[in-house]
Known about the structure:
Layout (H helix, E strand, L loop, with lengths): L2 E6 L4 H12 L4 E8 L3 H11 L3 E4 L5 H7 L6 E4 L1 H7 L7 E4 L7 H9 L3 E4 L2 H17 L4 E3 L2 H9 L8 E8 L9 H4 L4 H5 L8 H9 L1 H14 L6 E5 L5 E7 L4 E5 L5 H9 L30 H12 L3 H17 L8 H11 L8 H26 L1
Parallel strand pairs: 1-2, 1-5, 2-3, 3-4, 5-6, 6-7, 8-9
Antiparallel strand pairs: 8-10, 10-11
Helix pairs in contact: 4-5, 5-6, 6-11, 6-14, 10-14, 11-13, 13-15, 14-15, 14-16, 15-16
The protein binds magnesium ion.
The site of magnesium ion has 4 residues, from helix 7.
Amino acid sequence: xxxxxxxxxxxxxxxxxxxxxxxxxxxxxxxxxxxxxxxxxxxxxxxxxxxxxxxxxxxxxxxxxxxxxxxxxxxxxxxxxxxxxxxxxxxxxxxxxxxxxxxxxxxxxxxxxxxxxxxxxxxxxxxxxxxxxxxxxxxxxxxxxxxxxxxxxxxxxxxxxxxxxxxxxxxxxxxxxxxxxxxxxxxxxxxxxxxxxxxxxxxxxxxxxxxxxxxxxxxxxxxxxxxxxxxxxxxxxxxxxxxxxxxxxxxxxxxxxxxxxxxxxxxxxxxxxxxxxxxxxxxxxxxxxxxxxxxxxxxxxxxxxxxxxxxxxxxxxxxxxxxxxxxxxxxxxxxxxxxxxxxxxxxxxxxxxxxxxxxxxxxxxxxxxxxxxxxxxxxxxxxxxxxxxx
Length: 390
Ligand code: MG
């Protein structure tokens, strides 16, 4: 039996790489649902190639164009957020790959879990915003969450066969981003274009900025808490610029297990899709002699304050990680539109964390409310700031 896959966000970086993995393994997987937000041209092309049962475009304005382009194909076509929430519950879906960007992943992921679908989770913001609800619902509905994020896939792989053994701590590795070696003065001059030139691999604009600002690593810390049921003191971050070791688990006897290899997102994707069995691949193999030195250093949380803010949100709990995420989405958009500087982002996030109503034990509606409140507040903080400047 082939595993029938729904990909939420099929036109993004993870979505397209998931389709590459599926194309390489046609005996194991087939595409049941494809969804995209806006990128209709690529969605049409993917639908024609992979012949899913259904496609959904989140943006209603693109619906007619999609219908027209696929009128000769036996594919059902839907538009809008509600459709997105319904297709993840289809009987014909075995696994949902959540690869959309940001907060928009939360509700569809929750709906899929409630319908008992296993999740290959690439949308880390879902766990940042509402990790408590997501993990609780997953347990309740006997749903497995397979991490796609390479660091968490590494931890997950290190834990294979270790279910009787307690984790003492984990080390998430970080490339350090393109600005690791800049001074604080140089960091002030960083432009949008500098930030979008990530040296290591191709990713969407949002996660590229998050990687450069180290918010991505901050989110991964929170993601790890929920995926592996850890306390904040059990999670550490170590900068490893070569990105060969993808993360490390330390057990209570002091033994450490690391997962390593050349960075290629298709590997964690494939592992998540076919867990527990590894599939053969022709991904490039690691050669030790190409990397005679693997180096490690402490992250600089003075220069990259986002990481410290994420640890603070994690320790405080409640709706603070949700505030952190919403404020970050707003400041990243503002930075991409060149309304604020790179170095302005952490201050705006911190101020949002202080000013938005804190809720100790939030329920789903509180998260939805917090997200809205934070977006309004952070947007107004940005406006005030540009008024002061002009
Ligand atoms: Mg990652």
